[in-house]
Amino acid sequence: MLDVRWAREHPDALDAAMTKRGAEAVSAAVLALDTKRRSAQTRFQELQSARRDASKAIGQAKAKGEDASAAMAAVAKLKDDAAATEAEAKQASDALDALLATLPNPPADDVPPGANEDDNVFVRENGTPRAFAFEPKSHIDLGEPLGLDFEAGVKLSGARFAAMRGQIARLERALAHFMLDLHVQEHGYAEVRPPILVRSEAMYGTGQLPKFEEDSFQTTDGRWLIPTAEVPLTNLAADTSFEPADLPLRYVAHTPCFRSEAGAAGKDTRGLIRMHQFDKVEMVSIVSADQSEAELERMTAAAETVLQRLELPYRVLLLCAGDMGFGARKTYDLEVWVPFQNKYREISSCSTCGDFQARRMGARVRRTEGKGTDFVHTLNGSGVAVGRAMVALLENHQREDGSIGIPAALQPYLGGMTELTSGQG
RNA sequence: GGAGAGGUGCCAGAGUGGUUGAAUGGGGCGGUCUCGAAAACCGUUAAGGGUGCAAGCCCUUCGAGGGUUCGAAUCCCUCUCUCUCCGCCA
Asked: How far apart (Å, rounded) are the C-alpha atoms in residues A324 and A321?
């Protein structure tokens, strides 16, 4: 949710921000509703004030035993007028909120313009794609002998589901635990096991609702399967006023994520890249405004460490305005090299949301000086997507015989194994 | 699933129709005292919004939404959440 006062004072900036994102200019509509709301509210307040004074006078008169029937009749008119004006104000206010709830976060100034992923800006890279002396196989062909079972996924659940067995199952677990330990032990994140079914309020807080209802799965009792642990982790801060000393808060969680992939028909239909259910290690930071810029760099670096330790080549991109998520103010994507596809694929997305989510969920921090509170800033980043890390690991570390070399950092999580071969358990 | 209790300020906890945004205690902050600290004492301490150059004035908020009333934290209805007991259960 953007700040309506900012919109009121900078209508041109609002339109520029929306246009930069490829959305419609809305300042005229926002300002019209805002003006209507404030005018009705002011009139209501004047009527209400008069009404309260009149009622108090009646109370005092009655206390003295005087007759107050004339005053009581007079106040009835005020009451009707006040109620009508209040309804008018509420209607305008609700309409304004409904509109604001659908507007994406204005991009930061240093976010490059652009319509889609073609306009993202290269920032840096690490490692170089390996030159294979043989034709590299896909993670599907490599994984199936090791226990990656797409047939079982289809049988049990349908397309975009997979079962993992044996070594692949263990590898998935090892990857997740490695990432979790890394962020907890070296990056100062607090481990959380959040609920993965959440209320609509939580989905609204992080921005999945009201606009992207069709992207997530909902239970019959109205709860939502989280599309990312960003939802429960960030909403831990909802309805809270922090002391400055409480911040920054850093959370990390390993959870399944569920996405309907409604708009992705036909994309990545084979393999593990795009599933309805996948595991992800997610980082969330709750910080004060002055900390948020540095925190985004820190979080991105933490995600990069995962890929470095797994010895996977990757690059970092700064997303253009048109490719950013709804709630993001600035986003870095990490793309890992996928040999079989011969291209880089997204494996992590680290974003600062500024105060956009905080305003939706009521997450505040007291000012260090003076009275009052400010909204906190929230950040989230994958650290990283486990299924896609598995894809990258299998393909990048494959050998000609189909076995998979295990990077040193991961070996302790696999009982010291240095490779996976189809002959093993 | 059955039965019951309850949601009040940073926390605990009063308050069942009339200047109650709300007693009291704790905590926080400021001060007195002290070489310093503790203790004691004094003072202070909600958020959001409207209006205004400002000081200020005003409105809203006692889980949420409706209703009764001249007047609601207090009465009524609906919803929601929490807790307790019983049942069931990984």
From this structure: 6
Spell out a b/e string for A228-243, using b for 16 or more CB atoms within 10 Å of the CB, else e.
bbbbbbbbbbbebebe
- What is the Cα–Cα distance from A94 to A100, expressed in whole angstroms? 10
Reply yes or no on whether A274 is catalytic. Answer: yes
Residue A19 has pLDDT above 60, yes or no: yes
Is strand B within 7 Å of residue A75 (CB)? Answer: yes
Distance A89 CA to B53 C1' (A): 27
Contact positions of strand B to protein Cβ (< 7 A): 10, 18-19, 46-51, 58-60, 66, 70-71
Asked whether strand B has any atom less than 7 Å from the CB of A5, the reply is: yes
**Greatest pairwise CA separation for chain A in angstroms:** 103
Three-state DSSP at A365 gives strand
Per-residue pLDDT tens digits for A184-201? 999 999 999 999 999 888
Residue A42 contacts residue A48 (beta carbons within 8 Å): no
CA distance A245 to A252: 20
Catalytic residue flag (residue A259):
yes
Predicted-complex ipTM score: 0.83
User: What would the two tokens of residue A376 be?
Assistant: 């906190």
DSSP A63: H
